[in-house]
Amino acid sequence: MKVVPDTSVVIDGRVSDRVESGDFADATISVPEAVVAELEAQANDGHDSGWDGLEELQRLAGHADDGEIDLEYVGERPDAIERGHASEGEIDALIRDLAADLDATFVTSDIVQSEVAEAKGLAVEYISPETEEVGTLSVEEYFDDQTMSVHLKTEVAPKAKRGAIGDMHYETIAEDALAESEMKELAQEITNAAKESHEGFIELSEPGMTIVQFRDYRIAIAQPPFSDGVEITAVRPIVQTDLDDYEFADELRDRMKERQRGILISGSPGAGKSTFAQAVAHFLVDSDYSVKTMEKPRDLQVGPEITQYTELGGEMAMTADSLLMVRPDYTIYDEVRKTDDFEVFADMRLAGVGMIGVVHATRAIDALQRLVGRVELGMIPQVVDTVVYIEAGEVHTVYDVATEVKVPHGLMEEDLARPVIVIKDFETGEPAYEIYTFNRQVVTVPLNDEDDGDEAGVDRIARQEIEREIRSIARGHVDVELKSQNSAVVYVEDDDISTVIGKGGGRIQDVENRLGIDIDVRTHDEKPPGAGSGSGGAGGQSGGGDASGGQPGQIVQPEITSQHVIVPVEGHAGETVEVQADEEYLFTATVSRGGEVQVSRGSAIAEELERAIDRRRQITVVPS
């Protein structure tokens, strides 16, 4: 009997099974070189399938040494062009042609290969892939009723996160560290179980990282070179909840049943976001809504009536396109993190699908702010109308999001009316935040701001914007005093008066029009004692005093232009220096030949430096 196996049946290990069962006794097993090439490529790419196939070839070699079969390698290795077209069936065609030339039985576990081979008139033996019942995995023995996750790593004692939601503790659960051989055995057991059992599947398989979903467990296996040692992290949900277990349950139920919504479920890691999302999913299904999920990896524990989708072709955007054809009432998106995720979430919501997104955030407002810059500002309330913040497994805060055309809180002039996103406390109905465009910048203003004493958030923002506008014109020191919600006095150096006002008052009028605030320009000599709360521009003034706690440095006055924040530095051209604010490190930079450090406005460093200037902190340059 002559047998030609293809790649699928070699990977499955089914050829040696047939030899051991006697079905292929005394057979000549002709392994195509094309099969060896495929297995070698898969193993080099770090895929377990390649290693499994190579182990099967070694088993067949052992049977040949024992005289049970004749083993030979036939055909030519595929060239680069044929390997490049492997997905189009070029390699499969080579293997079938060899079986025809040798007048051998073609053995495969690939149903498409089987059908094509039969159509070509070959003798075919199709061996369907088997699934096996898998018992308890070794890693499961580390879990108890209060264990959320188990963390195993080579040469490290096993650890686990245990406790109640919101009160988890990372603790050592065994004294003896695991050897590398033990870790590899555990990893192999997990991947084998995912392949053999209908209760599991491999979610992700990349060189160095494999993610397995097995029953209720999501297991990540990291290996060198991706990690510095073999590491296994197994996670499972420890509680199943119902929407009735949460505060505002009735109101949230009514809200979701009223019409399709855009909801963000936010909270810090381990706070119980996914558990709440699962409770919402079960409620929606029980309320006769069609519900799907979008996850990578698939992690939510939901019933079989909810289909869980992952990336299609490596992109969630393609998954979204497919879901729009399925037309679910609600889709749960777990987790929304990157810009692409927010864009897909917004596209589906604007297409009329109810969307529930799970987002990492340390405050409820932070979840909404992550949409700013990723979704057009005016569209945010149409994308997200409800924010639910979870803390310690409970609903801590719920916000209602809507747009109103109004004068922002704290401003007075009617001509300052604009679209404002109003975030209201769901329980009290009182506004908590406003988001709107102020001087071409999007600002989020807390309406119960107590951080700066009597100065409201909008006042602080207005003062800072006035300072920035005037400092981009003036070269000397600038102070700003807010007289009311729609007027201010700006104090500048004598030499800057004409520059700031401009010919016929045109320049300051432009600033007033942009900011919507009346501005009176005066010199510092006219400033009453105690008036003004701004910060300096730059005059190149520096000192060699004892800045930053006894360390030699220069006290400088940065200049803010329309494009840069310029820090003057004397005597250190080409050297590396530290820029500090009130002795606190801000950043390190190299001084230019012209004796200055330039930071582009809009960058994170520039924003931090400008905040320090706004707060009148002493800016010091210290040689590093």
UniProtKB/TrEMBL annotation:
Biased composition (Gly residues): 531-552
Region (Disordered): 522-555
Keywords assigned: RNA-binding
PROSITE patterns (UniProt xref): KH_TYPE_1
A Pfam entry, by short name: T2SSE
SUPFAM superfamilies (UniProt xref): P-loop containing nucleoside triphosphate hydrolases (SSF52540), PIN domain-like (SSF88723), Prokaryotic type KH domain (KH-domain type II) (SSF54814)
Entry superkingdom: Archaea
InterPro entries: AAA+_ATPase (IPR003593), KH_dom-like_a/b (IPR015946), KH_sf_prok-type (IPR009019), Nucleic_acid_metab_PIN/TRAM (IPR052041), P-loop_NTPase (IPR027417), PIN-like_dom_sf (IPR029060), PIN_dom (IPR002716), T2SS/T4SS_dom (IPR001482)
GO molecular function, one term: RNA binding
Domain AAA+ ATPase: 259-394
Family to which this protein belongs: In the N-terminal section; belongs to the PINc/VapC protein family.
Official protein name in the record: ATPase
Organism: Natronoarchaeum philippinense
